[in-house]
Amino acid sequence: MKNKTILFLSAIVLVAAGLFTFQSCTKDFEEINRDPYAATDEQLPVGEEFKQVLQNIYSYSPAWVTQLQQNLIGDVYSGYMMPPTPFQGNSNNMTYDLVDGWNEWPWNVAYQSVMAPLASVDRKAGTNFPEFNAWAKICRVAAMHRVSDIYGPIIYSSYGVLTANGGVAYDCQEVAYDLFFKDLDAAITTLTPLVNDANATANFTKFDLVYSGDITKWVQFANSLRLRLAVRISKVDAARAKTEGEKSMAHPLGVITSNDGNFLVTSADGTTHPLNVMDNAWNDIRMGAPMESILTGYNDPRLPRYFESSLIVPGQFKGIRQGIAIASKSDYEGFSALVDLGKVQLMTAAEVFFLRAEGALRGWNMGGTAQSLYEQGIQVSFDQYGLGSAATYIAGTTLPAPYVDPVNAGNNAGPAGNVDVKWNDAASQEAKLEQIITQKWISMYPDGQEAWSEYRRTGFPRLYPVLVNNSAGKINTQAGIKRINMPAPEYRTNKEEVTKAVQCLGGPDNGGTSLWWDVD
Q1: Burial of 257 (0-12, 13-18, 19+ CB in 10 A)
Q2: What is the DSSP string of 251-275?
Q3: Between the N and C ends of the chain, which has fewer C-beta atoms within 10 Å?
Q4: Domains of the chain by residue range
């Protein structure tokens, strides 16, 4: 099956945008081509659906779906990675000529493999399994805030409900975020009294691919997720953000504070991380130039934990600049490959410390100062990779390094940022925020979707602008891409409702229109 899938990936660059023909196993074909708003198999035991959901917030398999769900969007736009492959003659997502046939896949996966099975859980659980209803709410928010942060408006509150015109209504992003907070509140309220309930724990354990049935850790994750979303809206609704952020900290079970609470999804069947396939089997993804600039400039010991040294300049780590003209894949596939990954990582203790650090910087009660939480975030990230004390690194005063492309000097650039690691209380708020976000960006690797969202919200770290912009003026080169346009199939099958949804954006349905929380 792997060979057939690889053949499809190679063929994908040759087909016109939106036209997909592929060779894959029958099981995969049926799974990814079902009605996105249809219910899942009602014969499954209640709760079995969670395995499917947890493996598709970030899709485990097939790898080509993950490539379209996230890799050729968030992983690239975050600065983490860049393909050496000149897909469609360099006219593709990387150069802002957005490919509709690629960009519907975050939507397809979310509705086929998250929303549909969770609706099935809710129907079957009824009032008999309140822990499952609560768990479904957490998973729904964990998946759908990522989808909203790609497109903006999403189908959420009206999922499964037809309008008078036969369509399905959208929620504007502001409304969706309000619903996310309410769903997390409800879930946390339900689960907190059940942390020592043997029956509830046993029910979770059967289907839990993250915390092996530990309800306390699920509540802590839900609180941490609420904190993430609170920080996300801090520039557009400061009062709500502070309320929600402090609520997470005030909860008796609190947030994730150690690496044993990291949200890491285990494959139910031993499937390898899809990035390993893209990197090793296909040679379709490599290190991004901003990673080279920042990690080498800081002498960051996480660098060899993330990437291999390059073949193009043996002994050195080399990243590819985003949005460049690539004449041939062979020119850049010798740049730094990714170190093989294990479980899918969607939240870490380090990220949570950096969220708290930013909250403290904004005057929220986060259980510490901005500096202490920032430094704890660095240390817990070091702990995650077994790197020992971070004291020397935390005292570092070196800056990100200039970027040099050994293939084409026209791609060279200055440093991706102008702050060091050492905290300076006398620095401006903006400089402190840049330090916090830069370290959070390093620690969240390889989750490019979340890193891209934070870059759009803050402008940090200072990523390189694309050199080839094929958006026909729709996307500003310096500002960078802001979102992905609504899925093309929605205009064919749900036209009236998607047309209404676009009005929420306050601008055209293209990659240059900012999302609700992206106010800078």
Answers
A1: middle
A2: STT----SGGG-EEEPPTT-PPPHH
A3: C
A4: 2-273+287-505
Quick check: bond before 461 cis, omega within 30? yes
Instruction: Give bridge partners of residue 171 from the DSSP assignment.
Output: 154
Q: Look at residue 520 in the predicted model and tell me its pLDDT.
A: 79
Identify the H or E element spanning 346: strand 344-347
Q: Which residue has the tokens 């063929």?
A: 11
Please name the residues in contact with 112: beta carbons below 8 A apart, sequence gap of 6 or more: 31, 32, 34, 36
Q: 442 with 78: CB under 8 angstroms?
A: no
The SS3 call for residue 378 is helix
Tokens of 166: 């036969």
288 DSSP β-pair partners:
320
On average, the pLDDT of the chain sits at 93
Residue 397: exposure state from Cβ atoms within 10 A (0-12, 13-18, ≥19): exposed
497, 27 Cβ separation under 8 angstroms: no
d(CA 338, CA 21): 28
- Rounded to whole angstroms, how far apart are CA atoms 464 and 462? 7
**Sign of the dihedral through C-alpha 115, 119, 125, 130:** positive
Distance (Å, whole) CA 485 – CA 423: 39
Question: First vs last Cα of the chain: how many Å apart?
Answer: 46
Contacts of 181 (CB under 8 A, 6+ apart): 226, 229, 240, 244
The model's pLDDT over 221-230, given as tens digits with 9 standing for 90+, comes to 999 999 999 9
Considering only CA atoms, which of 431, 507, 463, 473 is closest in space to residue 96? 473
Interstrand relation of 344-347 and 263-265 (parallel, antiparallel or unpaired):
antiparallel
Strands, DSSP E only, in 381-518?
A: none
Report the relative pairing of strands 344-347 and 286-287 from DSSP bridges: unpaired
Residue that the structure tokens 């994730």 belong to: 256
Tell me how far apart the 2 most distant CA atoms of the chain are, in Å: 64
pLDDT in tens, 215-258: 999 999 999 999 999 999 999 999 999 999 999 999 999 999 99
Could you tell me the two tokens for 247?
A: 């609520």
Task: Please return the burial class of 16, using the count of CB atoms within 10 Å of its CB with bins 0-12, 13-18 and 19+.
Answer: exposed
CA angle 108, 91, 7 (to 5 degrees): 60
CATH of domain 2-273+287-505: 1.25.40.390
Distance of alpha carbon 25 from alpha carbon 27, whole angstroms: 5
- Residues of the chain with pLDDT > 90, as a percent, come to 90
Q: Which residues contact 409 (CB under 8 A, 6 or more apart)?
A: none
Smallest Cα–Cα separation from 302: which of 107, 122, 440? 440
Q: Secondary structure of 162-195 in the HEC alphabet? A: CCCCCCCCCECHHHHHHHHHHHHHHHHHHHHHHC
